[in-house]
Amino acid sequence: MALGLRLDNVFLGEVPVDPRADNTRRQVLGACASRVKPTPVRAPRVLATSREVMALLGLEEGAAATPEFAAVFSGSHVPEGMDPWAACYGGHQFGRWAGQLGDGRAISLCEALGADGQRWELQLKGAGPTPYSRTADGRAVLRSSVREFLCSEAMHHLGVPTTRALSLVATGEPVIRDMFYDGHPEAEPGAVVCRVAPTFLRFGSFELLAARQDVETLRRLVEHTLRRHYPALGPAGKESCLELVREVAARTALMVAHWMRVGFVHGVMNTDNMSILGLTLDYGPYGWLDGYDPTWTPNTTDAAEGRYRFGHQPGIAFWNVVRFAEALHPLIQDIPALEAAVEVFTSAFDRHHRDLTAQKLGLASLDAPEAQTLADEVLDLLPRAETDMTLFFTALTELPHGEAATTPDEALLAGFAAAWYDADRARARIHHRLLPWLRAWDALALPAPERQARMRAANPRYVLRNYLAQQAIERAEAGDPSLIHETLEVLRRPYTAQPGREAFEARRPEWARHKAGCSALSCSS
Ligand code: AMP
Ligand code: MG
Q1: Centre of ligand 2 from the C-alpha of residue 85, in Å
Q2: Nearest CA to ligand 1 atom 3
Q3: How many Cα atoms occupy the beta-carbon half-sphere of 241 within 13 Å?
Q4: Spacing, Cα 455 to ligand 2 middle (Å)
């Protein structure tokens, strides 16, 4: 028994596995994974753990302080009973088929039973090269590891479907990165995150097999997926495969509707980053909206095209679901049925998005045309002068019922002052339209106290603003991980006002407007 984990490895026993177990970079045919050993690191040091994920996996809180924990979750020691692997998958990157990609720096250690009875896959990110590393080093830098660790836990506490993070371990080894691909490589501290999900299978896991016309391996992977992750759909067959497409479409729609609710921009919605369980997966150059701007993308690689900009995410998710459906075509062979199945995305997204928008606005629903108009108007209004999304909705949530009708204009607007990045511009472009909007909204929204309860549950006060993550990173790079802990602590209760933590609610400071890591994120990680 490793560290007290209840190991229950099933994946490698149920899918075809590469017969080779060395790290030579190669094309791997006829297999879903390759056995691989993580590469030990010089001086592993645990920087942070998630207490909820520790408990989920049955690990004592004190376990994180043991040398064994640091060794296992940095990939330096593989305990008895673990049989690590790297998964083989492909993907569409920025709209183009990219062929084999695979876990180039992720190594799954094991599957373990959680306190909830669920089987969880534990995966190290940054634990050294695999057959899928292509020309890269298999490592991850501290800055991107802090970002993945904090954001996956923050998303969980926000109620957004996501992979989880157990631990963040510094490796004590430098990693060379050219952050902006401009000929300035630098040594940065390395780290390994242990992330946790029922599975890390992606759309691309299926797409690669379909692209290679390897129908037998595809069938085995689908059988495994149905048995372990969608048991309610029954054994593999045309109908259950179609149902799988519908389920994946519906879950992906729910995930993206939540992203839109909280202001999250994934940044790299390639099909190799789309979870088969509809979980937010692969936290890279993601970002959070400060000013509400549907055209914003944090990813510098995507800045020109804006393919993965905030407002484009539902359309891209649908495009990705279609790629997944195409990958299952060899097992279904019925194009009209597949076309109908992917449409589940559209109806599910529409339903969830409308429900969540109604919740954010404290409306019973968006069914009445006046309600839909209110929602459309406010989202059209906010970008007219940079308006902080989180602060705007917090201010709206806290506006007492009936206040809009009786309060003079200036006093009513004062409640929103923190949300404007440029007060003069807001005055010129937004105020005159917001005032009648507020009064119409107050009259139509639910009465107190339901209104506030509903809005408080949908509008977070605390999100992992890009500059907050960056501050925690800079402190950690200087040797002090305490701001990671404090940030995680705040983000564990994102819907609750936390006196003394006002700094975590503040809108983006001006110094962060154009700073690397705060407004522009590169894929280099
Ligand atoms: P991403 O954009 O992070 O989803 O990565 C796309 C592909 O590149 C995946 O196959 C990754 O495993 C691979 N990759 C990214 N960074 C590295 C790295 N440092 N070493 C090896 N493979 C990597
Ligand atoms: Mg990826």
Answers
A1: 16
A2: 284
A3: 24
A4: 34
Residue 515 belongs to some domain of the structure: no
162 and 67, same structural domain? yes
**348-369 pLDDT tens trace:** 999 999 999 999 999 999 999 9
Q: Per the structure block, which two tokens stand in for 447?
A: 């009465």
Residue 105 CA to ligand 1 centre (angstroms): 6
Q: Which domain holds residue 55?
A: 6-201
Same domain, 431 and 310: no
Residue closest to 6 by CA, chosen among 80, 102, 100, 113: 113
Asked whether residue 475 is domain-assigned, the answer is no
For residues 180 and 212, state if they share a domain: no
Return phi, psi of residue 242, to 5°.
-65, -40
Q: Does a structural domain hold residue 474?
A: no
Residue owning the nearest CA to atom 14 of ligand 1: 104
28, 132, 269, best to mutate for ligand 1 pocket (most atoms within 8 Å of CB): 132
Q: Are strands 287-288 and 186-197 parallel, antiparallel or unpaired?
A: unpaired
Chain segment 499-520, per-residue pLDDT in tens: 999 999 999 999 999 999 998 8
> How many domains does the structure of the chain reveal?
3
Q: In terms of domains, do 197 and 257 share one?
A: no
Count CB neighbours of 177 within 10 A.
22
Question: Residue 315 is encoded by which pair of tokens?
Answer: 């359309």
The set of catalytic residues is 272
**Residue 35 belongs to what H/E stretch?**
strand 33-35
Give the domain-ending residue among 180, 201, 222: 201
Half-sphere exposure at residue 85, Cβ-oriented, CA atoms within 13 angstroms:
27
DSSP notation for 96-145: EEEEE---SSEEEEEEEE-TTS-EEEEEEESS---TT-TTS-S--BHHHH
Q: What number does the ligand 1 atom closest to the CA of 101 have?
A: 10
State the pLDDT at residue 1: 54
Q: Is 277 helix (H, G, I), strand (E, B) or coil?
A: coil
Residues with CB under 6 A from ligand 1: 101-105, 132-133, 136-139, 268, 272-273, 282, 284, 523
